[in-house]
Amino acid sequence: MKKIWKYLFLLFSASSSAQITLDTVVHPWNAIGYDFYPVQISSTETKYYVQDTLTNTFNLYNMDFTPFMTNIAVPEPYNPFVYNYEVIYLSRSLFDCDTSSIEFAYTAIGSALSGATKSFYIMRTDGTQLFKLDSAYAPYCFGCLNGSQDTKPIINTSAGAKLFLYYPSNTNNLHIYSLCGTLPKIFDLTNSNVDQTYITIFPNPTSGSLTFEINLPNNMEEFELVIVDNSGREAKHEKINFSNHRCVIDVMDFSNGTYYYSLCTKRKAYQSGKFILNK
Questions:
Q1: Distances (CA, A) of 161 to 1, 59, 188, 194, 198
Q2: What is the distance, to the nearest Å, from the Cα of residue 263 to the centroid of all Cα atoms in its chain?
Q3: Per residue in 210-241, pLDDT tens?
Q4: What is the pLDDT of residues 81-92, one digit of tens each?
Q5: pTM greater than the 0.85 cutoff
Q6: What's the CA gap between 160 and 166, in Å, rounded?
Q7: In this structure, are strands 85-91 and 160-167 parallel, antiparallel, or unpaired?
Q8: Residue 80: how many CB atoms within 10 A of its CB?
Q9: How far is CA 77 from CA 5, 70, 74, 113, 172, in A?
């Protein structure tokens, strides 16, 4: 019988002298790790992930626990037994560099060990299937061979982000894929370089118009400036070239709130950030 976790978010106020402040309590405690966890969907956005194994959907919440996206269907049912399907990556631009939508990788961890034939999916939250590989799974190993090495299915490399999938039904081959985007740098512990700034925006917050001063990373690619709202819907996009380093965008028609921008090419997202509109 399938399980379903009920989450109760309770906000508490802390005394003025406290240095460690309780944000919330999540019930039950043993849901942590599979049914509830924080996820970095871009370099500027962290969400809480909550899965519902009864309805085969998951929900995303903002850091203040208000709903961000709800009732997102998964391609195959959650399984309450061993080697069950899990959402392992959520991102705005890791797999297709389209920041107007959110995408996720869905797989059965450890399915090769069980002898089961599972599929690895990459989906958009609108239900669009971007990729599927049958009889494959994403390798995970934390502290491999009792050491300090960690194995993860996606890592950033000097040649871009790479996806690793084991394909046991095909003579145990390892398939290596190049991805369009990169993992958010907040989770990239292998990159110690200081991020280069390509975009400066002002004023922020704004009440009507916003100026983007843009220093393009190179002159070989076609760049776009993409703006999305707090629900992930595209609000505006502008083509950027070397003769157009300053871009003034009128946002008077937008509703008040927080918006996110990315400087993108078809290959990757170079920089993301956010601004606040308060008319």
A1: 38, 26, 11, 18, 20
A2: 16
A3: 999 888 877 777 888 888 887 777 888 888 87
A4: 546 788 888 998
A5: no
A6: 20
A7: unpaired
A8: 11
A9: 16, 17, 7, 20, 26
